[in-house]
Every structure is written in C-alpha cells, then in structure tokens.
Design a protein that fits this description.
The protein is globular and about 65 Å long. It has a single domain, classed as Up-down Bundle (Amino acid/polyamine transporter I), CATH 1.20.1740.10. It has 21 helices and no strands. The longest helix has 37 residues.
C-alpha cells in the first residue's frame, strides 16, 4: 500500500471516530480562526496560532495557585520551587499531547475517551471530570469574592452571589469573537505578571536560596509539605485543561487534509503552549517568592488572602516595601485571575458534557449550572463558618488537592491515545521517550496521591 493510501485510510478511520463522537468539538468556534499560510515566516505563523495557549495557561495561575504557592513560600520558604518547576515541565508535556490529539484526530480528549469506552464508564468519567471542574470553579468563586471584599468592602456572601452574574460577561465576550476573547485573556495575564514582577522586585528575595529551591529535596515528602506540594501540582497541572486544549486548538483553520498541514499546526500549537505555560511558571514562582521573601519565618497568621492583603500594607510584616498600593495591586490581580479562569471553566464544561455523554445545552445554561454548582457549597460553608475567610480558603486548598487526585483519570487516556500508532498514525504517535515520560508522570502522581489519601485517613483515625 502506498504512503498516500495509508494516510487516506488512517484519516478515514479518524473521521469514523469523530462521527461516533457526535461531530466537531466546540462546533461554534471550530475552524473559525484563520492562520498564516505555511510559507509565511516563523513569527507570523506563531502569532496566528497564538491564543489557545493563553486560555490554557490561565488555569495555571488561578486563585487556587495563589493560596498554594504563596502559602508554600510563607511556610517553607523556597523549598517548593522544585515542585513548581517539575509541575510546569509535566504540564508542558501533557499540553503538547493534548494539542496534538486534537489536531491530528479532530477529537478532543473527552470525545476520544468516549469513543473507546462504554456508556457507563463514559458517564463515570464525566462525573469525575465535572467534579474537577467544580473544584476549579470553587477556587474562582472564593478568589473573586475575597477580591471584591478587599477592594470594595462587600461581604463574602454578597461577593459569592455576585460571581453568579459573570455568566453575562462571558456570554458578551463570546459574541464579539473568539480571537478577541483570547486577546482579552492575554491582556489580563500580562497585568498579573506585571503586578507580581513589581512586588517581587521590591521584596528582593535571596537569589542564592531561590536557586537552591529548584533542587528537589526529600523534605517535600513530609506530611505538611506533601499536602501543599500536591496542592501546587493540582493547581498547576489542571486536569480540565487537558480536555480544553484538545478542543480549542481546533479553532484554527489549519490544513486538515494532509499530514504536513497537521504537522505544521502541531508545531506552532506547541510553541504557543510552551510560551504561555512558561509565563504561568514564572507567575507561580513569583507568587512563592513573594510569600517566601516577605513572610517566611513570620509568626503572624498569613494563611488568608485578607491577611496577605493587610500584610502587604503593614511595614512591621512586609518591611519598608509595604504600602497601600501593593495591597490594592494584589487584590486587582486576584480579581483578574478569577475572571480569567471563568472563561476556561465554562468552555471545558461544554467540552466534557458533549464529549462524554453527548448532551448539548445552550452556553448560558451551561454556565449558570456550572457556577451554581460551585456557588452552593461555598455559600453553605460561608454561612456555617460565619463568613470566616480562613475556612473558605481551607476549602480552596483542598479543592486543589482534589484536582491532583483527579488528574491521573485524565492523564492515563491522554498518554495512551497519543502513544497509539493506530489512533495517531506513525508520524504523530509519541516517541518512546515521550510516552515513557508521560507514563512515569502518571504513575508517580498516582502513587503520591495514594500516599496523601492514606495520610489523611490516618489523621481522621
């Protein structure tokens, strides 16, 4: 059989799988964004493919990251920098696989998983993924509510309830075009980066200690360190982002009829992803550096956003760099982070619902349902604990740990699909070392999760 015929047969098999997955992923934006021709220069091509990586990177710098990273710096100094580094490298590997799966097969991860599983397993996986999305949304709700409280003095209950209405913001953004949504998200990311570069520069961290922090230590495996480390992993390598990236990368109108066209798209989607995830890695390092440089070893309780907000304006805690400007910038960046993540949570909910259980509902309904499912437990916790910010942020930390526990459910099928020559074709299947790195990451994370669960069970006994 000729190479051309083999390619046509493989493409035909992939089209059958796509039909079984009920059509294109995110059909309303699929193939709607024009890209530069293949003979265009590198920069022009990169710019035309840039955007999906920003939406994915947003999930790596949401309010859940703030609690785990700043808390890690405040409690353990620069020890957990190595966790952020390893997590970011794993994220780059997985997002590369995710983008490649979407481009080569024309399916997102949820569609591909459902096409290779039965109905009951598909429903179970959908429920697990929806819980992970809910955990992400909980972090966004709490972060946005606290930011509104810090900036405008609104009560936490009022702030939580107001987050329901950001569905209107999302629907407005979707109407102006997906490319503009990407641009808005990228602008907010730049804002967050600028705020923390400024604040960390003023904090003047010990660069020697920072460099040492990137070297892994066995101390990380101690119980308290492990909980925060897994929280950082869960907040960094977000399971729902694996589904999202495999879908939104298909928004580009790349050549889907030839292997060269798909290879071109994979190349620039990978560049886009790695650049944006590099920015997310930088932000997470800045968050931990801020906690470590200003607050490590301080006896004050700085376990909440409110306490950090006050501390940044208190010379006795933050030193000479303390000022109301730092506090306000911190709250603004927190609000921007929560709103950014709202967009990705809604899109992912649509992807997994359509992919796993083949159900389509209007976007506004999807957003309202997703946000209400997140708001209800937060409202209950707020009432039960009398509006305690400490209690809410404890819920936020454990929501990030849950994301880490849910991660192998998404990682295993992704590594399997992208390593299969039958599914991906000879040219696009993972190289042996890439597949080995993917499986190693999945196994190690699963073992660490089991250790975490066992240690938590022992605490309750």
């Amino acid at each position: 059989m000729s190479v051309v015929n083999e390619e046509q047969v493989a493409a035909g098999e992939r089209r059958k799988l796509v039909r079984s997955a009920t059509g294109p992923s995110l059909e309303e934006i699929n193939g709607t964004v024009a890209v530069a021709p293949k003979d265009a220069g590198f920069l022009k091509s990169l710019l035309s493919f840039s955007g999906p990586g920003a939406l994915v990177a947003v999930g790596y710098m949401d309010p859940g990251n703030w609690v785990t990273s700043i808390g890690g710096g405040q409690q353990f100094g620069y020890l957990l920098l190595s966790v952020i580094l390893i997590s970011s490298l794993v994220a780059m590997l997985l997002q590369y696989m995710s983008a490649k799966l979407g481009i080569v097969t024309g399916m997102d991860l949820a569609q591909a998983t459902r096409a290779h599983t039965g109905r009951r397993l598909g429903i179970a996986l959908w429920i697990a993924t929806e819980l992970a999305i809910m955990a992400t949304d909980v972090a966004e709700v709490i972060g946005a509510a606290i930011a509104l409280h810090l900036l405008f003095g609104l009560s936490l209950i009022v702030g939580v309830c107001l987050t329901v209405f950001d569905v209107l913001v999302l629907l407005l953004l979707m109407r102006i075009g997906f490319r503009k949504v990407e641009a808005i998200v990228a602008t907010l990311i730049v804002t967050i980066v600028a705020v923390f570069v400024y604040e960390v520069a003023l904090a003047s961290p010990d660069m020697g200690a920072v460099a040492a922090g990137f070297v892994p230590s066995v101390q990380i495996l101690h119980h308290e360190e492990l909980i925060l480390a897994l929280g950082i992993v869960g907040a960094t390598v977000m399971p729902h982002n694996l589904y999202l990236h495999s879908a939104i990368v298909q928004s580009r109108a790349y050549d889907r009829t030839t292997e060269d066209g798909r290879a071109h798209a994979v190349r620039f989607a990978t560049w886009d992803s790695n650049i944006q995830l590099g920015a997310a890695f930088f932000v997470n390092c800045l968050l931990l550096l801020l906690g470590g440089a200003l607050f490590y070893g301080k006896s004050a309780d700085l376990s909440t956003f409110g306490a950090l907000y006050d501390a940044l304006g208190d010379p006795q805690l933050a030193g000479a760099v303390a000022s109301p400007v730092l506090s306000t910038l911190f709250a603004v960046a927190l609000l921007a982070s929560g709103q950014n993540s709202t967009i990705t949570g809604t899109l992912t909910g649509q992807v997994v619902m359509e992919g796993f259980i083949h159900m389509k509902i209007p976007l506004w309904m999807r957003r309202v349902v997703t946000r209400l499912l997140a708001v209800i437990p937060v409202v209950i916790c707020t009432i039960v604990f009398n509006g305690s910010e400490v209690a809410l942020e404890q819920v936020l930390v454990y929501s990030q740990v849950f994301l880490c526990v849910a991660l192998p459910i998404s990682m295993a099928p992704l590594v399997y699909f992208t390593s299969s020559k039958k599914i991906m074709g000879e040219r696009f299947a993972n190289k042996p070392w890439v597949a080995a790195a993917g499986w190693l990451s999945t196994i190690v994370l699963t073992v660490l999760n089991m250790e975490l669960i066992w240690s938590l069970v022992q605490d309750f006994l």
